[in-house]
Write a structure and sequence with these properties.
Blueprint: H1 2-8, H2 15-42, H3 54-93, H4 108-162, H5 167-181, E1 186-192, E2 199-205, H6 209-214, E3 216-217, H7 224-231, E4 235-243, E5 246-255, H8 264-293, H9 305-322, E6 326-333, H10 336-343, H11 345-361, E7 368-371, E8 376-382, H12 386-403, E9 416-423, H13 430-446, E10 452-453
Parallel strand pairs: 9-10
Antiparallel strand pairs: 1-2, 1-5, 2-3, 4-5, 6-8, 6-9, 7-8
Helix pairs in contact: 2-3, 3-4, 4-5, 4-8, 5-8, 10-11
Length: about 450
């Protein structure tokens, strides 16, 4: 019965059928109005017109008005959904895909609304896919930029290491690069102390000077939990710094972000930086060893401090065995530091070279001459007692006063203060003999410089 009424109604009919019905209903209005005008004004005295009384005609007019209202209602029911769909379509066109078109009909308008809803859903899905793709593209671009920045940093670090920069400056540069790549995370390099064997901070970024200066860890305490407690970070990753399979320290990177996990590619990148740190540390060790093994001063060509200490120790032991004297001179250039500040590096090095030439010309082949520091020179005089050593010292003092720096500063003389010590009178070890000569030089300075103190 319900299906029968539904089939008899206009709801399942198409727009073409409903339009014809609405047009037919609306067309009755002008016909009936014309009939009413004719009866009322043209034939006012006729009581019967085509077999109809005036009462019946009035009833017919009433029915016509009802029919016209029904026609208007049918027309409205066709137009309202179209207007609603147009409004919803504008919203979809503006980008609002959160709502669909809520029109449940079985005619063309219903089919159109369903089609628009399907299109809106597809547009929404496509927009979500595009958004997700945009996020992925953004992440990919960030990763590419990170890799490019890391590669650039590694190349710069390689240049620093090859140029033999100081280890501290190289480590500072490395951890700054790591911190930049890891979104300004806290980064530090911990190296094993040669004496205590504890892990101490050699360089840090975003950690704080107070915390960095007081942070030490024993090798037995080296664990993620201890690092988190000591440094105060939630997320920490550590990469070992090794040389020839031996541990020398660790690169530590961390942050306090929630639900953060270091990705595998980030760990691989940190391994590369840890390897660069290993190379820098190893290079620094080799440079120090080469300096220790070197016996020549780079500026003057004389022996360096390490060689002079070793040689003096040998001569002292030989002198003790054979009960022979050994003289030692400490030659200190007067006012050299002031000259270095005013004259500069080039003239200062030229003066030091000339000083070395004068010293070499003042001793024999068995005597040894070396440069201990910026303005201090040492002379080892085997088989010379204090008196003989003082005679050699006086000859050196005069030559320096007469010859040194004439071409560099002709208006003023260069002078030296010399301390003379002898084994075994002034000491039986290297340190004792050198300290004695150092005290004598200070006495010479206090007495006016340009003199010898025995």
């Amino acid at each position: 019965m319900i299906n029968l009424f539904k089939n008899m109604s206009m709801f399942p009919k198409g727009l073409r059928y409903k339009t014809m019905i609405a047009f037919s209903l609306m067309s009755l209005i002008p016909i009936l109005v014309c009939a009413w005008l004719a009866i009322t004004y043209i034939f006012p005295n006729i009581d019967l017109f085509f077999g109809l009384s005036l009462g019946n005609i009035s009833f017919i007019l009433f029915i016509s008005i009802v029919i016209s209202i029904l026609g208007l209602y049918v027309t409205k029911e066709m137009i309202d959904p179209v207007i609603k769909m147009a409004e919803e379509a504008k919203k979809v066109a503006a980008g609002d895909t959160t709502k669909g078109i809520d029109i449940n009909r079985e005619d063309e308008v219903g089919e159109l609304s369903k089609s628009l809803n399907i299109m809106t859903q597809k547009i929404k899905e496509n927009m979500e896919e595009l958004k997700a793709y945009g996020e992925k593209t953004k992440l990919i671009n960030l990763e590419i930029n990170k890799k490019v920045l890391a590669l650039s940093g590694l190349l710069q670090i390689g240049n620093l290491i090859s140029s033999s920069k100081e280890l501290n400056s190289t480590l500072d540069f490395i951890i700054q690069k790591v911190s930049d790549i890891e979104n300004n995370s806290t980064t530090l390099v911990m190296l094993i102390d040669d004496v205590s064997k504890d892990y101490t901070i050699a360089s840090s970024c975003n950690l704080g000077e107070i915390k960095a200066s007081g942070l030490k860890l024993k090798q037995s305490e080296l664990s993620p939990d201890n690092l988190e407690k000591k440094i105060g970070l939630k997320n920490i990753v550590g990469m070992p710094v090794t040389i020839a399979g031996k541990s020398y320290g660790m690169l530590v990177v961390g942050n306090n972000e929630k639900d953060f996990i270091f990705a595998e590619d980030e760990k691989e990148l940190l391994k590369l930086f840890a390897k660069q740190i290993s190379i820098a540390v190893e290079n620094d060790i080799l440079v120090k060893r080469s300096k220790e093994l070197s016996i020549t001063d780079e500026v003057t060509g004389l022996h360096n401090c390490n060689y002079m200490r070793t040689r003096l120790d040998e001569e002292i032991r030989r002198a003790i065995v054979y009960q022979r004297p050994c003289g030692y001179l400490l030659v200190d250039m007067d006012d050299f530091k002031n000259f270095y500040v005013t004259a500069g590096v080039t003239k200062s090095e030229a003066l030091l070279k000339e000083m070395g030439v004068i010293l070499q010309a003042s001793v024999t082949e068995i005597d040894k001459i070396g440069r201990l520091s910026d303005d201090k020179f040492a002379v080892i005089l085997p088989e010379r007692n204090k008196r003989q050593s003082a005679s050699v010292a006086e000859e050196i003092r005069k030559k320096i006063e007469d010859r040194l720096g004439k071409s560099i500063r002709p208006d003023k003389k260069f002078t030296v203060s010399i301390g003379v010590s002898e084994n075994p009178i002034d000491g039986s070890t290297v340190d004792e003999l050198m300290e004695k000569a150092e005290r004598l030089v200070r006495n010479a300075k206090s007495l006016g410089k340009n003199r010898i103190v025995v």
